[in-house]
Design a protein that fits this description.
about 25% strand; about 15% helix; four-stranded antiparallel beta sheet; alpha+beta
């Protein structure tokens, strides 16, 4: 549904609002969240055909839908987001077998040929500040870090430095930066626009 219509020069702009989440999708999905995003995972087969995962960023409200063939299908499963380790757990009971899966955001991006032991639940440390761990777990974590650094040096792996993009400050405009244009001043707005509308444009050929 178009909620805003604008025009500039010989181009017309339409703003369309599309409802991605409704009461039906919420009833057939698992809803979970952390400090950064809100995750919606469909658990019914009918809804999983449209998307397999829907993530909403809490900061800017950006919505990302994942529905590719490489995405995990969470239909007929119970899912939850671990608040301490920031990993996703899924439980599936098909009758013949019971399967518990763990999805880690770092594990899926690792470039090692073998699974890194440092990312296993027994060795990973909580990402939430203030959580206490045992001395044995911290010692195993340090040994795993040293082993990872040794393997990285032997395989000549490099770490790409991610430079933080400086936030652009919005310019403060003054009245001298604007040009007042009176369109259809003596004939009203035209095409259903009011006389004070700035969106009305007369097209001439």
């Amino acid at each position: 549904r178009a909620t805003w219509v604008g025009a500039s020069s010989d181009q017309t702009f339409l703003k369309i609002d599309e409802s991605l989440i409704n009461s039906f999708s919420l009833q057939q999905s698992s809803l979970m969240a952390n400090k950064n995003c809100i995750v919606l995972l469909p658990t019914q087969c009918e809804l999983s055909k449209s998307f397999k995962c829907l993530v909403i960023n809490k900061r800017d409200g950006n919505c990302s839908s994942f529905q590719g063939a490489d995405q995990v299908d969470f239909s007929q499963t119970a899912t939850c987001l671990d608040p301490l380790y920031n990993i996703l757990w899924s439980y599936s009971d098909s009758g013949d077998s019971t399967e518990v899966s763990c999805y880690h955001v770092v594990c899926c991006e690792t470039r090692l040929e073998v699974a890194a032991c440092i990312l296993s639940p027994q060795l990973s440390l909580p990402w939430t500040p203030g959580c206490q761990v045992t001395r044995c777990q911290a010692a195993l974590h340090l040994l795993g870090v040293l082993d990872t650094l040794t393997q990285a040096q032997e395989r000549r792996l490099t770490v790409r430095a991610h430079t933080d993009h400086a936030e652009t400050q919005d310019k403060i405009f003054i009245w001298d930066d604007f040009s007042i244009v009176n369109r259809f001043e003596s004939h009203g707005g035209g095409w259903g626009y009011s006389g004070h509308s700035i969106e009305a444009i007369r097209f001439m050929a």
